[in-house]
C-alpha cells in the first residue's frame, strides 16, 4: 500500500515537473503598455549641442521565448504626433511636412525580423518604417526583466532597446543640411508590457 502511494506521488511529481518544464519552454505573449513606454532620441544641432526629445503612444506586442530567443518577436507602433522636445515652436515644426509629416504619416512602425543573443545580451534586428521609408535597424536590448505582478494584478515585464539610425537612410528632413542637423539619431525605446 505504501509503495503504491509512493509510486503515485512520484508519478504525480514527475508529471508536474515535466508539465512545468514544458510550460517554461513555450513562448509568452505580452502587450506593450503605452502609458509606460516611450522612445527617447538625441540628435546633434549645428555640431555643438544635442537636442533631446521623446515620442510616446507606443503600442504593440511582444512574443518572448526565454529558452529559444530566435522564436521571439516584437511589433510596435509609435504615434509621431506625440513628438516632444519641450519647445512648442520646434515641436510644431517637427510635426510639419519638413520632418515627421504627421498629417501624412501619423505613425512609425517597427517589426522584428530576427532575435538572438550576442555576448550575453539580446540583439533584435527589424524593419523600421519612418515617413514611408522602411530600412533594417539593429537594437541592443537590456532585458526583459523577470515577470512580476504589477498594479491591477497583471504580470508585467520591462526592457530597454537602444540603437542608432541615419536620417539620410530614411530621406528624413532631406532639406536640412547635416552641418545644421546631424545625420545620426541615437534612440532608446523603454517598454513595459503586460499579459
Could you explain how this protein is built, in words?
This protein is α+β, with helices and mostly antiparallel strands and 195 residues long. It is built from two helices and eleven strands; from the N terminus they run αβββββαββββββ. It has helices spanning 2-25, 88-95, and strands at residues 28-32, 38-45, 49-55, 59-64, 73-79, 107-118, 121-130, 133-142, 148-149, 155-166, 181-194. It has an eight-stranded antiparallel beta barrel. A hairpin with an 8-residue loop joins strand 4 (59-64) and strand 5. The longest helix is centred in the first third of the chain and has 24 residues, at 2-25. It is globular and about 50 Å long. It starts with a helix and ends with a strand. 21% of the residues are buried.
Largest sheet: 8 strands, antiparallel, barrel
Spatial sequence of strands, sheet with the most strands: 1-4-5-6-7-8-10-11
* Sheet/helix structural class: alpha+beta
Shape: globular
- N/C terminus separation: 45 Å
What Rg do the Cα atoms give? 22 Å
Q: With helices defined by DSSP (H or I, 4 residues minimum), what is the helix count?
A: 2
Order of helices and strands: HEEEEEHEEEEEE
Number of strands: 11
Strand content: over 45%
How confident overall, as mean pLDDT?
89
Amino acid at each position: 500500500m505504501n509503495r503504491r502511494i509512493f509510486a503515485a506521488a512520484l508519478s504525480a511529481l514527475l508529471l508536474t515537473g515535466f508539465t512545468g518544464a514544458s510550460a517554461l519552454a513555450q513562448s509568452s505573449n505580452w502587450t506593450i503598455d503605452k502609458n509606460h513606454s516611450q522612445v527617447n532620441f538625441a540628435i546633434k544641432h549645428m555640431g555643438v549641442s544635442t537636442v533631446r526629445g521623446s515620442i510616446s503612444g507606443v503600442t504593440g506586442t511582444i512574443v518572448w521565448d526565454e529558452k529559444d530567443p530566435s522564436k521571439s518577436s516584437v511589433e510596435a507602433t509609435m504615434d509621431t504626433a506625440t513628438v516632444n522636445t519641450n519647445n512648442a515652436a520646434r515641436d510644431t515644426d517637427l510635426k510639419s511636412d519638413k520632418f515627421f509629416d504627421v498629417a501624412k504619416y501619423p505613425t512609425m512602425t517597427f517589426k522584428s525580423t530576427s532575435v538572438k543573443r550576442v555576448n550575453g545580451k539580446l540583439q533584435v534586428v527589424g524593419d523600421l518604417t519612418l515617413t514611408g521609408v522602411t530600412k533594417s535597424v539593429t537594437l541592443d536590448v537590456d532585458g526583459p526583466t523577470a515577470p512580476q505582478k504589477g498594479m491591477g494584478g497583471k504580470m508585467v515585464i520591462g526592457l530597454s532597446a537602444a540603437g542608432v539610425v541615419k536620417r539620410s537612410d530614411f530621406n528624413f528632413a532631406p532639406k536640412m543640411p547635416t552641418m545644421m542637423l546631424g545625420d545620426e539619431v541615437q534612440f532608446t525605446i523603454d517598454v513595459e508590457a503586460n499579459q
